[in-house]
## 1
Amino acid sequence: MKTSAFIRKYYLDRSDSRSVKWSRGRKQGCLPMWIADMDFRCDERVTRALKDFIQAGDYGYTNLPDDYYQVFCSWHEKRNHILYQQEWIRFTKGAVNAMYQIIHSLTEENDAILISTPLYPPFKAAIKNCKRKVIESPMKNDDGYFTFDYKDIEKKFKTKNVKMLMLCSPHNPVGRVWKKGELEELFELCRKYHVLVCSDEVHSDIIMPDQEFIPSLALKKYQNQTISIIAASKSFSLAVFSHCHVVIPNKKIRDRFIRYQQENNTASVNAFNALPTYYNYIYGEEWLDAVNNVIFDNYHYLKQELGGYMEMSNLEGSYLLFLNLGRYNTCKSAAECLADRCRILANPGESFGKGYENWVRLNLATSPENIKKAADSVLQLIRSKEK
Ligand SMILES: Cc1ncc(COP(=O)(O)O)c(C=O)c1O
């Protein structure tokens, strides 16, 4: 579907809704480009299927659809060329909830867990809240192209007794889709130092046309040390349903996770919350491809308009752009400057890592019209500074 046709059919005006994103925008008189959900209506066939469920009025204890696992596995086989097995899959109430359950079940209090920063803040919060030690490894940045600092990671593995690496793949906020070689180098270090890998792959369906997403579990040599967090929540904007998969091929590790779930009564799955994922995997592919095109167009527009003035992340995956306002930032934080001067709400760079006060994260999953509005107001800021 062409972008213009998709926008006509699926752009969702959420300005008066209870959407978290737009409610705050309304309150502050700003165009909301923070938080990670989309301004697009769900595919109409998915909505119809959900309506049928609601209309039947049977809200008793309910099983998953018989072919749920088959549908899940087919999606990932078709899109990412990986064959997951049903018995590897467990459920959690969302991806952040999965992080907490993985940390609790597979590490001990005070264990060291490494993250590469800048990074989506709930990773660090989860490690801290579970009473584990956060070990940060700052990424290298070459004009918006972020890469792991393997030397630093190895040094920290060696000296800090790290037990787990929490990976974001694709990476929020720097937009990288990790290459096979990058993952191999990282996982080889994990193998050498006996570090488990927890790979959050919730952005793996939003991949720019010239990129290939490599699931962590596709690297067979390292499958036994890896746990993946997989969801359709970002792909199809299903945050309200809090439905997520934890995929664990290693039986010993999986048994520990299952025991934790049993002891904490978190093993069951909510069959209603699973339905939007199920129906989107069946009906949503064309919708998703159109969304990817919209995001790619939006990224290119911003790059063309603002790229000459400021550093921005190389968007390979996800719909989140990391932008360095640099000398155009007139406040303590670039997010404050964007809100005050441009009437744009963005996630503050400093929430992702130390030293990113001049950066903001912008959500591009909206209409080209909103993107243009945002670009125009940032250009005005630039011009006022250049005068
Ligand atoms: C990498 C990543 N993981 C997890 C989440 C949150 O997922 P959930 O709402 O399922 O907890 C987000 C949300 O933006 C995210 O970007």
## 2
Amino acid sequence: MKIGIIGSGNIGATAARLFARAGHEVAVSNSRGGAGLEELIAELGGKGRAASIEEAARFGEVVLVAVPFGKYETLPVEAFGGKVVVDANNYYPQRDGRFAQLDGGETTSSELLASHLSGARLVKGFNTIWFEHLARQGDKQLPLEERRAIFIAGDDEGAKRTVARLVEEIGFAAVDTGSLREGGRRQQVGTPVYNKELSAREAAQVLSAN
Ligand SMILES: NC(=O)c1ccc[n+]([C@@H]2O[C@H](COP(=O)([O-])OP(=O)(O)OC[C@H]3O[C@@H](n4cnc5c(N)ncnc54)[C@H](OP(=O)(O)O)[C@@H]3O)[C@@H](O)[C@H]2O)c1
């Protein structure tokens, strides 16, 4: 599959390595038109290329967005049309600036991104896992219920299935928390699953208790 990566920092670069290792083709971008990514691209062994944000979005059947959330409105809307977009962004006011509608709980960062990228099929995912764990904790030898959970949420069931497959291909288990609005809220910063090392079995227990 062709995967576009928006943001090549901790999460974007880690995901690019895992997706390339699983056999996918990745186009990786940053805030500098793809400049300075030579070392990462070399690591991807022929499976990766550097790209601008627009090129990476157009390239991907699936596009992972992993940038500081506060920048979301700079993403070029047309390039994401029809794409399955994975939103790994979290809202940290000290980094992103204050968004009154998030502080007031009226909406969520993923709903804001979904309404900005209006033609995309958005799935919240990869939000609760620290990048060092993402790099190391995938294990395809384990049965699904014993694998580290990666939470997903969204309103497009087909898009969620696509993302769940990718999650499994890199050795994790996808745990669906529901719709973008309600399910997304269950995996935000500060929730009982945020940055917790949970297997899929443990994740189901935590979710049912909360
Ligand atoms: N760190 C984690 O373990 C973790 C885990 C789960 C979720 N998250 C969330 O995932 C997102 C990315 O986190 P990170 O730790 O990977 O961040 P990071 O290491 O700071 O990397 C951010 C990336 O976004 C790029 N970027 C900055 N502004 C941009 C813009 N306007 N348009 C496009 N790209 C832009 C940066 O480009 P340059 O390289 O050119 O500066 C950089 O490649 C955040 O929302 C974070 O909260 C992080």
